[in-house]
Amino acid sequence: MIESLQASPAALIGVCVVLGLCVGSFLNVVVYRLPKMMEAEWRADCAEVTGVEPPPREVFNLVTPRSRCPSCATPITFDQNIPVVSWLLLGGKCAACKARISARYPAVELAAGALAGFLAWRFGYSPALAGALIFAWSLLALALIDFDTQLLPDDITLPLLWTGLLFNMGSTFTSLPSAVLGAVAGYLSLWLVYWGFKLVVRKEGMGYGDFKLLAALGAWLGWAMLPFIVLVSAGLGAVIGLAGMALARTGRDTRIPFGPYLALGGLVGLLWGRQATVAWLGYFPS
Known about the structure:
Order of helices and strands: HHHHHHHHHH
Largest sheet: none
Radius of gyration: 21 Å
Distance between the termini: 38 Å
Low-confidence stretches: none
Shape: globular
Mean pLDDT: 89
């Protein structure tokens, strides 16, 4: 099996696409459940401080309970949980109550599969492919969670940071010293922006999760990639944010999550950041 994947790029891409579709199905669970798990932890912490016993709750984590229809709570069977295919066969509706099932579920599965296939084509059979898959799928989950809730869970950002450092112990994407400096510089740069904005404007401009996410991106791609990532993220955030405000007629006080733009900037940095930096500066800082 391993030899065939090494010898056949098409087979590698196919396997990664199928794997990505399955991972995308799991990411849908993570995006929905992880914020709710965080809220439950916060309520438990508040109850511990106040001494008020919280009401009993069912076990709720990434595994329990089984996936079920949000409208009628009917458990979803295995044959109804095949990525993309089941949604199409069911016509985008629950098999029991016929309630609509959001098209975002198959869209996330397709996005995870397409990313996996593209990364397999780009990196081939290598340790870099394994790291790129972890990197891309984590960013996809973080972008969706931040878009929905304006939260960037430590349960994803911190493991992503440490995993980036581990991969770069062998200089997979950058040298280990560059990765360590990238993690430190990524965190401190947005931390300084946060406090400068807060001192001048007297309000918060971003959350601490953004610091940790940029630190994780620095750990994966190195300190020299941070300016490119921030430039791409800020540019996309400004254009899309202004367009959204114009179309939705919202005011300047509307909070816009920065995590999705950082995630997209990190993915662009992984794929084309080095070439863009060389084209811009004439060299890549080491």
